[in-house]
Amino acid sequence: MGDSAPEADARKLAEEARDRVRFEEEALELADQVYRVARRLVSSREEAEDLMQEAYARAFRSWQSFQPGTNLRAWLLRILTNLNIDRGRRVQRSPDVQPLEEGDYFLYNKLEAAGDSDAEKVDQRLSQDDAVAALSAVPHDFRDVIVLVDIGDFSYADAAQILEIPIGTVMSRLHRGRRILKRELAERTVGSSV
Amino acid sequence: MAFGFEIDPCEKCEEILQPYLDRELGEDERAEAERHLDRCGYCRKRYRFEVELRRFVRQAVVEEMSPDLKQKLSALRTPLL
After folding, report:
1. Is residue A74 domain-shared with residue A123, that is, in the same domain?
2. Which of B57, B23, B12 is nearest to A105 (CA)?
3. What is the pTM assigned to this prediction?
4. Domain ranges, residue A143
């Protein structure tokens, strides 16, 4: 014999509460990873912390729209990147369409030309501060994809979904963004003559 | 199948450096890139540098979440009745 209507309702509520608790726990377990990405999408720790709290509050409110079995980390970052854009924290700028003459071997070639006989020893040539400053100097649209792919370990397809842009745009922004990053690193490491 | 390696292999190698390291190349193109890297010290050195550079930047820019933020996020959970 089936449950009476009140019993069925109570059971449904209990199941929903259990699912929600599980969802919130799983989302919180991913918070460290989400934060590492969030921190480099914005310019300060304070902004990153605000954004995380807003994103998690929204995620917990709309937990039922998450499809179980799909990538929760990507879902959380999609909320977070949307919030980042919605809040107008980005300085809107026209896309950087200036041609870049530097190729992908640019930084290595610069270090080698500067007399570094072993340009492969990256740690000895570059400082942590240079890396942080160079990444911050990359325009937002390009930096977003670098941060998602290189820091967040997302595939091109995941990054495309998170940012709601075509995969070809992810690839072209990544390509250009990494070249800008290398140019910024070269300027800080080899000097302004680059 | 050739992907441009027959014209200027080093230029082609530089062009596909990123998708190669991102493991986003097709199998044939990846195999062709690896054949070139096996033979070409010039590109091999630069590929190794790129691997190190990515590792370095990734480690350099990582900043961990504060315990205070962790607590604030935990406090956002729906209270149990």
Report:
1. no
2. B12
3. 0.84
4. 106-189
- Residue of chain A nearest B81, judged by CA positions: A17
**CB-based contact B64 A32, cutoff 8 Å:** yes
**Which one-letter DSSP state was computed for residue A147?**
I
Nearest to B34 by CA among B49, B12, B65: B12
Please report the residues numbered 2 through 61 in chain B whose beta carbons come closer than 8 angstroms to any beta carbon of chain A.
14-15, 17-19, 22, 24, 45-46, 48-50, 52-58, 60-61
* pLDDT tens figures, B54-80: 999 999 999 999 999 999 999 999 887
**B66, A49: Cβ pair inside 8 Å?**
yes
Which of A13, A108, A125, A182 is most worth mutating to test chain B (most B CB atoms within 10 A of its CB)?
A108
Interatomic CA distance for residues B56 and B53, integer angstroms: 5
> What letter would DSSP give residue A65?
G
CA-closest candidate to residue A28, choices A52, A61, A62: A52
Q: Quick one: CA dihedral A70, B26, A159, B67, positive or negative?
A: positive
CB neighbour list of residue A160: distance below 8 Å, 6 or more residues apart: A166, A167, A169, A170
Our count of domains for chain A comes to: 2
* Residue A110 sits in the same domain as residue A180: yes
**Within this chain, do residues A64 and A134 fall inside the same structural domain, yes or no?**
no
Residue A97 lies in a domain: no
Tokens of A48: 């990153």
Q: What is the mean pLDDT of each run of 10 residues along chain A (194 residues)?
A: 76 88 96 96 94 97 94 96 79 54 79 74 84 93 94 94 95 92 88 53
- What is the distance between the alpha carbons of residues A146 and B18, in angstroms, rounded to a whole number? 11
Q: Residue A143 domain-assigned? A: yes
